[in-house]
Fold this sequence. Notes:
Elements lengths: L20 E3 L11 H4 L1 E5 L6 E5 H7 L1 H12 L4 H7 L2 E3 L26
Parallel strand pairs: 1-4
Antiparallel strand pairs: 2-3
Helix pairs in contact: 2-3
Amino acid sequence: MILRGKRKACFTPHSDCGDNVIIINAEKVVLTGNKMTQKYYMRYTGYPGGQRTRTVAEQMKRKPIFVLEHAVRGMLPKNRLGDAIFKNLYVYEGPEHKHEAQQPQELKINTHKQYKN
């Protein structure tokens, strides 16, 4: 909702009126249920028999940024506007990022107590 700009009074569905979003600590993502072992990411190499699959746990070891980016991209519109909005998203593995000069404001998102570390 923040990336899209739906909380703003000037929201229109056909324009990018959202803010830039910086996500830090992507390696600390917690999924509910058995998604770490039962959810798969599939890709195709282009060759016969080239379908490759990875579980979320394997993907988190290789590239934890991909898991969050893939989830957010799926929530955006599937057109040029979605591509433009996705460019306003920045995901980092650790707590450091290179956007301190823009003075970002921390946003508290309500989470369930059982998932807090």
